[in-house]
Amino acid sequence: MRLTSAVLRDHVRLAIVGGGSGGSAVAAKFSRILGASNVAVIEPKATHYYQPGFTLVGGGLMKLDSLIRSEESVLPQGVNLIRSKLSRFEPENNKLHFEESPPLAYDYLVIATGVELRYDLIKNLPSALETPGVCSIYLPQYAEKTFKEIQSLQKGNALFTFPNTPIKCAGAPQKICYIAEDYWRRNSVRQNIHISYNTSLGAIFGIPKYAASLMKQVESRGIELNTRTNLIEVDPEKKQATFELLNAEAQPTGKTIVKKYDLLHVGPPCSPVPVLREAASANSPLVDGKGWVKVHPKTLQNETFNNVFGIGDCANTPNAKTAAAISSQFRALEANLTSVIAGKQPVSEYDGYASCPLVINHNQAILAEFNGDGPLETLPIDQSKPRYLAYFLKRYFMPALYWQGLVKGYWKGPKVIRKLLHLGFSK
């Protein structure tokens, strides 16, 4: 039986807050271990999106309707789907509180809330997104709008931005820049359009191997790169974007610069969701000072509450926030939560793996795979080179892997495949 509006029972063995990539994977796996009726997923949203596809929708390379499933269809039959909005964590007493339902007690908790897209942190941006020229591939309706804006632009200034906060899929703001440039070039208007990529970071990408390859794209295609530059305000009437200039530590210098735009694509600032920010305000040991779920970076277990784990974008782990990272985190979380349920200690470690297939045109991509130590590549080739194979994997293989593997609790990242392809000499 699925719960759709109210909590009909007061206790479950495992509660999962969030029904996205990580939450769905955990629900699928542990419904098979504990029994579906002993698992509850708290997720008010009725629609589940394959979010890595939004960039391709924005570039006209995928259709939005191919990325959509109902949340009920993604979760295993018999799991308790609770649509009530969570109002407060009470980890000291193993309880969750809701705005319109009685509390739910749990034995074990997995927090998988993702992040909140904070368009509101940029002055005038929420309203500007409804005006011509301003777009963002991070929400479905604006992903579709992005392609319309790209199609309609014939000349002028195209600005692409990357925020001065953590962000989900950090490669996406530059991917859509490359895809747009390729579209304009193939449609013979590129010579009329000035393109700039404006990032708060000090380099085009954080891993030097891939940064070098991406800089070749930037330079050969005439894209202006502005580092340590952060969007803070949009004036849709004047079609102006205001950026603050940052120092080497990404702190504001007090200087700003105003740029005219005909197309403005915004990579939004991101933060923990409100209920986690409120936990931070209450000084809960569940989270750090900003509201990211406080977990051990390798075991994903909360530092204070041993029966609580975090997975995905909401955790304070240092890895890039991508679906690929979630799949590898899931490998560790599954083993560790199973061990803790059995009364033992965590037995597995997340290796920090993340991946970002950097689409650079309509049929090529750079398949960046890495952790904090540098590249961690699956294929026995140089993945920093643009290839059709990488685009094929991104466009056709990875969506199927997501729907049939990750959210069903089977795909745990490419670690085993990587070792096989590297004859056991890779981590």
UniProtKB/TrEMBL annotation:
Q: Which organism is it from?
A: Panagrellus redivivus
Q: Tell me, in a sentence or two, what this protein's role is.
A: Catalyzes the oxidation of hydrogen sulfide with the help of a quinone, such as ubiquinone-10, giving rise to thiosulfate and ultimately to sulfane (molecular sulfur) atoms. Requires an additional electron acceptor; can use sulfite, sulfide or cyanide (in vitro). It is believed the in vivo electron acceptor is glutathione.
Biological process (GO), any one? sulfide oxidation, using sulfide:quinone oxidoreductase
Subcellular localization is given as: Mitochondrion
For this protein, the record's Pfam families field holds: Pyr_redox_2
Gene Ontology cellular-component terms listed: mitochondrion
Keyword terms of this UniProt record: FAD, Flavoprotein, Mitochondrion, Oxidoreductase, Quinone, Transit peptide
Q: What family does this chain come from, according to its entry? A: Belongs to the SQRD family.
Q: What's the Enzyme Commission number for this chain? A: 1.8.5.8
Q: Which cofactors must be present for this protein to function? A: FAD
Give the GO molecular function terms.
FAD binding; glutathione-dependent sulfide quinone oxidoreductase activity; quinone binding; sulfide:quinone oxidoreductase activity
Q: What is this protein called?
A: Sulfide:quinone oxidoreductase, mitochondrial
Chief place where the protein resides = mitochondrion
Question: Looking at its record, which EC class is this enzyme?
Answer: oxidoreductase
Q: What are the residue boundaries of the FAD/NAD(P)-binding domain, all occurrences included?
A: 13-119
Catalytic reaction list: a quinone + hydrogen sulfide + glutathione + H(+) = S-sulfanylglutathione + a quinol; ubiquinone-10 + hydrogen sulfide + glutathione + H(+) = S-sulfanylglutathione + ubiquinol-10; ubiquinone-10 + hydrogen sulfide + sulfite + 2 H(+) = ubiquinol-10 + thiosulfate
